[in-house]
Amino acid sequence: MWKEFRDFIMTGNVIEFAVAVILAGAVSLVVTGFVNDIMMPIVGYFVGDVDFSQMKVVLSEAVIDADGKVVKPENAIRYGAWINTIVNLVIVGLVLFLIVKAYNRMKKKKEEAPAAPAGPSTEDLLAEIRDLLKKQT
Question: What CA–CA distances, in Å, run from 9 to 12, 22, 23, 24, 54?
């Protein structure tokens, strides 16, 4: 059983998949940082100095004791963070679309390799057979 597991893990597809998952995590952090730290402040500036990450509907306020310690945290619907996530999804979708489009364009060029020269037509083959049959008689 251990040998089968080792053989499974050491196949190229599993290793490539693991690398892809790790890279996807890193790319996700980059895209999230891009959306939260670059895109959304720009969007917020153009819609009237709005900080989307702070947009929320408070359902119940936080309860703080006399020492300033939070006894009960705030309960809120953070729809601004959700808007950031939607923008993040759109950017990732756009990037994936562009990658797939470029891949398909490159794949198409490889498929358009020159075709093999065409063989004799059916009429040529029939004429050749006819001529061979005439020679035999």
Answer: 8, 16, 18, 20, 44
DSSP 112: T
Does the reported pTM lie above 0.70?
Answer: no
- pLDDT tens digits, the chain, 137 residues: what are they? 888 877 777 776 777 788 888 888 888 888 888 888 888 888 888 888 888 888 899 999 989 988 889 889 999 999 988 888 888 888 888 888 888 888 888 887 766 666 667 778 888 888 988 988 888 87
Q: How far is CA 82 from the centre of its chain?
A: 20
Structure tokens at 56: 């929320």
Half-sphere exposure of 136 (CA within 13 A, CB side): 6
Query: Residue ranges per domain, the chain?
Result: 2-114
Query: Is 2-114 in CATH node 1.10.1200.120?
Result: yes
Q: Which residue carries 């057979």 as its tokens?
A: 129
Nearest to 80 by CA among 45, 117, 34, 36: 36
C-alpha 115/C-alpha 118 separation (Å) is 8
Residue 34: half-sphere exposure toward Cβ, Cα within 13 Å: 12
Cα separation, 106 vs 15, whole angstroms: 25
